Amino acid sequence: MNIAMLDPSLFTGRYDDSLCAALAGQGAEVTLLGRPMRATDAIAPQGYAYLPHFFRRSEALRVKMGEGRAFRIVKAAEYGLACALGDIAPLTDAELVHVQWLPLAPADRLMLQRLKGRTALVHTVHNADAYHADAGLQGRGYRALLDLFDALVVHGDTTRAALVGQGVDPARIHVTPHPPMRLAAASSEDFAAIPPPTLPRLLFFGTIRPYKGIDLLIEACLQLWRAGYLFELVLAGKPFMDVAPLTDAVAQAGFGDRLITDFGFLTEGRLDAHMARADMIAFPYRHIDSSGAFLSALHHGKAMVTSDAGMFGQLPDGVAVRAAAGNAPALAQALLPLVESAAIRLEYGARARAYGEEMGSWKDMAVATIGIYDNVLAGRA
């Protein structure tokens, strides 16, 4: 079976790499098509091929231009031309195209229309609300694209129910649980770049976007700091929003020495070091379907505090401390026992690690995914 796996911007490189390697392990011939690799990427193809098919020109300009508005315009224009007129032979030559992410819906429609009928099309819907309503033009028209696929893959019943509510035929939706992931291991240089904790350390890591509730986390921490509780907060990842008002609020409240920031596109090793240094990890998301960040942190065995949105609301009791989504005071109350007690942190950390060990494997995911491919190809035949 010849599969073209598509993630043009490498939004979920670790997921892509894990799935492609597992599919190859089950005998599939897989090519992952994305953009040119960056220094922060940690993809090392095992058993599958990698093709930097998208964004070659804009990525070459990225270092010179930075990542401001001009770069984004160039990147969007290049992608639009590629979708409308570019070479799609690597896609049409495959028996099946599995799209992980559709980075610019108006352009993606052009590419999918060119592919429709020429090869089987499968799409993993990581979030039923594309980009969590933060994307503007990027996600405009995303729902209509779903009708162009032969099958849709989701990671849980929350996403499935949301798609059915949007009018998607349930027969086209396949649920395959998201396995835990492991980021590239931290090096000694990664650890050296991160100061050891001087107080119990709370970590937020990953891309920083409005839906992830970092403002709620800052507000909850300020409430606890003002009440006299001692702990530090680390924010590690690339902001896709203005974070200056949030960090300024911490400094103006007199707690600047308790906030550590490591902003930017960070390597997997550096993120792994942040998780190893932390005592607690926060996921205060306003809404989410499934969280790769959460699943990549489980093996570290750290106490988790989450909202009750999406997959977090379906976690078994005791895996994480949960708070109502969008509620900063509730988040502060959820954090309080973890901040106060090392024993409670260790207890929740052990539960998180055990939960990760009980979940399915990437081999399970690959077997289920190949079953979906077989059904789609048989239907087309």
- Cα-to-Cα separation, first versus last residue: 14 Å
State the helical fraction. Answer: 40-55%
Q: What oligomeric assembly is this protein in?
A: single chain
Order of H and E elements: EHEEHHHEHEHEHEHEHEHEHEHEEHHH
Beta content comes to 15-25%
How would you state the average pLDDT, rounded? 94
Q: How can the largest sheet be summarized?
A: 7 strands, parallel
> Using only CA atoms, what is the Rg?
21 Å
Tally of DSSP β-strands? 13
Total count of helical runs of at least 4 residues: 15
The coarse silhouette is globular
As residue ranges, the low-confidence spans are: none
Derived structural class: alpha/beta
Strand order of the largest sheet: 3-2-1-4-5-6-7
How would you describe what is shown here?
- The protein is an alpha/beta fold.
- The chain has helices at 13-25, 56-65, 69-85, 89-92, 105-115, 142-145, 157-165, 188-192, 214-226, 244-252, 268-277, 292-297, 328-340, 342-358, 362-380; strands at residues 2-6, 29-34, 49-52, 96-99, 120-124, 151-154, 173-175, 201-205, 232-237, 259-263, 280-283, 303-307, 321-323.
- The strands form 2 sheets. A 7-stranded parallel sheet has the order 3-2-1-4-5-6-7, with helices on both faces. A 6-stranded parallel sheet has the order 10-9-8-11-12-13, with helices on both faces.
- Strand 9, helix 10 (244-252) and strand 10 form a beta-alpha-beta unit.
- 44% of the residues are buried.
